[in-house]
Every structure is written in C-alpha cells, then in structure tokens.
C-alpha cells in the first residue's frame, strides 16, 4: 500500500456556506455566499498551492535541484508555504520580509527551517522584492518570483478553479478574491470564464491609507507580471476597519477563524450580495486567523 505524503494534502479544500453574516438579506434575494477554506492546507494558506507548483515545475525544467538555495520576497503566507515546500523537497530557503510582518508569520517560517531577512517597514514589499533580486544577481540563490512566475496562476487554473466549479455544481455566478500577487484571482478567473463567460470576477483592494496584510494595490512599476487585468471584471476597495471588523465577525458569528485579507474578501462578497439576486458568490478564505494574534485585531 502506498500512503499519501504531506504534499498530497494540498488542495481539495472545503467550500462552506455562511450561516449568519448577511443571511437574512441573502435569503430575501435568494443569494448564497460561500467561503473556500484555504487555511485547511497543511501550511495554513492558499499559498501552499503555488509554492509547491513553483518548486515542482522548476525541478521538472531542470532549473533547480535539491540542495540549492531558493530566495523569495514575501509578506508572509507565500514565505511560510515555500518554507514548508523547501523542507519537504530538500532546499535551503531564504525569505526576505518587511519587518512589520506579524511575529507568528516569522516564527512559522523559521519553524520550517527557513532563514529570514527582515527589511525596513518604510520600504514595504517593493524593497524586499528588490533585495531578493539583488541577492540572486550576487549568486546567493535562485528567486522563484511569485510575482512573475506563471506556475503561480497555473496551479489555480488547474486546481482551485475546477474545485470551485465542481463544488458549486457549475452554479457559481461571482468569484471574489483579495489581490496580492494576483495569482489566485488570475488563475481561477481563467478557468471559470472558460466554463461560463458570464461569471463575474471581483478583486478586493485596500482603500487609500489602509494596511491590510495580504491585500495590495501595487505601484505601476511593481505590478505583478502575472496580473491579467482582463481576468477581473470589477475592483472593490475595502477599508482596514471594515476588514478587521469582518475578521472578528467571521470568528464569532461563523466559527471561521480567518486572516484579515480573507475578511476583506468576505466584506466585498457581502457588498456584491446586497446588489444581486439569485447569485452564488464564492470568496477565498486565504489563511487562518492564528497568524494574526499578535497584531491586536482579535481582543486579548
């Protein structure tokens, strides 16, 4: 008998209906809002999918081999997922992260054996990305580059999109996702729109002045190369206060312990539901709330 490995547990995450948040309005409008629980992946986020995808496919192309050093700039979830994937497949992992990332994220990366380089908060992810590229130029390792690597959206086209289609039996009418590297929303959109071009894809972005971990509005010079504007029908801005309030509500009212960016996507999904009828709206719960405990978003 061949037993599954930890890699085999990535994906096939549950899709669950919200039972209390917005339920009365949704019942009147005959809408259903569904949450894709990506925190159920082994390293705790949707980024487990592209992390393994980028490493496996780089191996298949002969670009890397076990024992090599991999480098990646990250705000947290991709770093944790890559640290896990590197541990599984035998790589040295160096992660570059802005110093304002939560303590839980940094600790999780180190727990998987990754080396962590913290960069100034003032430089944001842009500085971290530049530093990672500079390290590669100096021969210190290979950058997988989640922002430009087609193996990122490809895995969502191959797995996340088909799962949503199957789990809703083709009834999905709207897909909502927080936008960071844009791999999830780009890959899922490509698949769903091939199945039904009428499906609307909505991206959640932060309002001006809001800092929501995992949701970004990139300067033009740093726009991820994998981003496909044609894949997205609408952008909805969410405030930090609304995202953090929804984060607490999801835990207390739904029993879904989610991160702040996931809550931002949930807030956007609820706004979409308020204007639609007979809609099946799915959003991505991209990670778990336990990696945000030190941020103060949850009451002590």
TrEMBL record:
Pathway entry: Amino-acid biosynthesis; L-cysteine biosynthesis; L-cysteine from L-serine: step 2/2
E.C. number(s) listed in UniProt: 2.5.1.47
Superkingdom of the organism of origin: Bacteria
TM region(s), chain numbering: none
Domain (Tryptophan synthase beta chain-like PALP) ranges: 6-287
Keywords linked to the UniProt accession: Amino-acid biosynthesis, Cysteine biosynthesis, Pyridoxal phosphate, Transferase
Cofactor(s), names only, from the UniProt record: pyridoxal 5'-phosphate
Pfam families from the UniProt entry: PALP (PF00291)
Record-listed pyridoxal 5'-phosphate binding positions: 77, 180-184, 261
Catalysis performed (reactions): O-acetyl-L-serine + hydrogen sulfide = L-cysteine + acetate
GO annotation terms (biological process): cysteine biosynthetic process from serine
InterPro entries registered for this protein in UniProt: Cys_synth, Cys_Synth/Cystath_Beta-Synth, CysM, P-phosphate_BS, TrpB-like_PALP, TrpB-like_PALP_sf
Molecular function as annotated in GO: cysteine synthase activity
Location of N6-(pyridoxal phosphate)lysine modifications: 47
NCBIfam families named among the record's database cross-references: cysKM (TIGR01136), cysM (TIGR01138), PRK11761.1 (NF008735)
Family as reported in the entry's similarity comment: Belongs to the cysteine synthase/cystathionine beta-synthase family.
Protein name, per record: Cysteine synthase
Organism: Simplicispira hankyongi
